[in-house]
Structures are given as structure tokens and as C-alpha cells.
Amino acid sequence: MISMSIRSFTLKTIAFLSLGAVPVVAQGIASTVQMTVTTPLTISYGQNVDGYANVASGDGSPLTGTITFYDGTTNICMISVTNAATCPATTGTGFVAGTHVLTAVYSGDATHAGSTSNAVTVTVLPDTTTMSVSSSLNPAAFGQSVVFTATVQGAHGTVAGSVEFLDGSTVIGSAALNTSGMAAMSTTTLAAGTHSITAVYGATRNFAASTSAALSEVVQAAPGVVATTTMLASSANPSVSGQSVTFTVTVAAAGQGKTPKGLVSILDGGAALWAGMLNASGSASFSTASLGVGTHNLTANYGGDAATTGSTSAALTQVVNAVQTGSGAGSFTIEAGPMTVTLGRMASVTVKVIPTIGFNQAVQLGCSDLPSESACTFGAGMIRAGGGSTTLQLSTIGPHDCGSTTPYSAGLPFVGPTATGLLMLFLPGKRRRALKGMLAALVALGGLAATTGCGNCTDLGTKPGTYTFNVTGTTRGAAPTMVSQKVTLKVTL
């Protein structure tokens, strides 16, 4: 009988004829070696393997010599075939996770030829692990030392390696596991508030990765310290590879008269992307053109100061698209700010077409989803290859005779004075007096239309309110590309 352990491969030789063995004849009497494994051939690191090996002569005559056991081409051990023995006698070479091809080779003697057993393949999988994390002090006061302890257990063996400790997605420390599978770290820098602490064990060759359940660590603020809110915004999302994107971090304090001060950082997943100081207004900006193609899970973290607690922003998903290749390759983005316009008047805003690396086409600008009875025009409707800027002018229409357009009050014979009265209701006192003259003229025009038969209603024009429309840019060619940018429009009286 042979006994094999993943770390200690133990074999016992038995001298008898094995059915099904394939003899190898050299000089002298033929011999055979047969190896059989009785336990599963797929196991986890730390589990045992049991089996047996037979070595026999073709005519049943006594054997002398040695038998050598191999894992692939690696010599595990050598023992005599004349005495029952184990291989190895004490400690073995050890089996790591992976595939192991086991064979036994008989050396032969003066009258018997040597032979090699059949090969037995054993697959060793990484052992599964489980983790937990605990705190030495919860809740803790701001500035107190807190020790976090992680415990990693393997299903079949003692885990080796190291663990990382995370506060949310931010790594706050790491430590090596001891012989009991435990690791600890201490910190005094946790900001006031609630922290989601986890411990992560990274996969090794012999052990699988695992993550602990989250521990909610509460750090209580010192008296007079107020809470903060951190926000993260992107100047272009989605963007394309090579395009410069500006990220702005804004930290606001709950208490009046307190402006957060100190360091803020931006993380891409769990990796630090940038760190900098807040300005006097409690904000900081960072620009980069080096984000890789793909989706980036960004967060901003404020560490707090003597008067304010730390806080972390909600995750911002920044998408970076690849630059197209070929003729007319690349893409572009459009920038245009919000607009405010008084009813019946016009407002302007600058529109920029920003090419990305490799983009070399002209762009035709346009507008879509405009509010009713408004229009947009561009100082230059076509932006040349290489990008540029122009002026977008948006006009609205005040109350007017319906003419050939459909009024809000379609079907009424004459609503000029009524519409005028409704418009007056929208106006604050000062503007109401300022527009009395214009409205009186509208009433007169409405009356004139009624008496002359030139019109039959009054159209109120563009309705006051807040809208969102799109500035679009379209390339020319066989496969045009369109990019749009949403613009907020506020129509006031």
C-alpha cells in the first residue's frame, strides 16, 4: 500500500505480479512495475493521495535493485525493492498546485531487466480560503489608534502570504500572515464618519483569493467638527484615448462659515490617480490625457481637517473610447455652456469642436430638440478640420398673431387680451410695469386683427421654463459620425 500526501509523497513497494502491467524487456528476465492511485485524481492543495505500486519479475524469481519515484522528470526518492519501505521516509519534495505525472522506475538487477510503471496524473487545485476582519475599537474617537486583524483559513492547510486592508475602495495598509493565518495593521488617520473596512487575500499558486465581509467602523468626530460632502465631476464623459479630461473635486461643509481645507485625492478603482490641495473655495481640479481605453470607476476622497470630517464622493464612471484608425480616423467632442434668454429676445454661447488624436474632418453643426417656437443659428455652421469654435445664437418668439402657426389656444375666435392677461401673471412687479407698453400694443394689435379680419388668435410664443436641447456635430463622407452635447436653456420673462 502507498500513501501520498500533497506535501509528503509516501510510497511503499510490494513485490507481486500485477495484472495488466506492461513488461519492458531489456537483458535478462522481464520485470513489471504497476502504479495505482485509489483516491480522486483531482484534489485541492493540502489533501492526501493514497495508492500502491507493484514490482514483479516475469518468472516470479526474487528481485533486487532499487525503485525510483518521479514527479514528471523530478526524482522524488529511491528505495530498495527487497524491503518494505515508504518513499520518502520522512519528508518529501512536496506537490504544489498544478498537474503532476507520477511514475515508478525499477532499476533492474543482474538477472532482471529494468522497467517503468504506467503514468498516473494527479491534478492539484489551489485550496479555497475564507476571510474575516475584526476591529480592536468600534466605535472609536477621531485620532484614536484602531487595530484591524484579518484571519485567513484554508480548507485543507495553513495559508501563507499577505493581506490588504481597504476602506471602501482605498487601500489603507497591508500585512503578512503569521503561521496561524492572521495579519494585523493599526491606523490613527481614519476620518470621522462610517468606514466600510474589508480585508483582501490575493491568490497565490496554492491558495485561492478571498475577501472578507465588510466591517462598519464608526469614527466619532471631535466636538465642533462638522460633516462634509465630496463631489467629483468630469469635463468630458465619454472621452477618447488621448483627449485631455479635467476632473473637479468639490468639498462642502454642513456648517455655515466653515470651508474644508487640506488634501483631496482621486482614485481609479483602488489605485491613486492624483492628489492635491483644496483651494480657498473648497475645490481642486486635475487634468489628464493618459487614461486608458475602457471604463474607469473614479472616486474622490477628502481626508478632513481640524474642523471638518473626511468624506468620499459617489463613484464616477468615466468611459474612454478608442481612437478609430483608417482614413478620416478619430472622433471629436463638443463643448457648449448653459444659456439664459428673455422671452422674445436672443442669447449667445460659444460652441467648441475639439478633435481627438487622429481626427481630421470638418464638422457640420446643428441643433435638435429645441423648445417650440425657438431657433438656433451658428456664426459658422461648418467647423474646418482640426477643430475650432463659433457662436451659437438662440432666438425665442414673444406673443404674436397666430397667422399660419398653431396657437396654444387653437379653436378660440380671439384670445389676444386673455393671453396678454395670462402673460402679465408671470411677471414680477418691475417687469410687469416695464412691459405694459408692449402688452398694450399687443392688445391693440389683437383688437385690430379682430376688426380687420387679418387674424383670429394670439400665439404666446416660446413658453417660459427650463429646457434641454442638443448641439450636434456631423462629419461628412460615406460613413458620417454624429456627436451631440446637451445644453440647458432657461427662458425667462
Automatic annotation (TrEMBL):
Superkingdom of the organism of origin: Bacteria
Pfam families in the record: Big_3_5
Record domain Bacterial Ig-like: where: 38-124, 134-219, 233-321
Keyword Signal: yes
Keyword entries, A-Z: Signal
Record's signal peptide: 1-26
Keyword Signal: yes
Listed name of the protein: Ig-like domain-containing protein
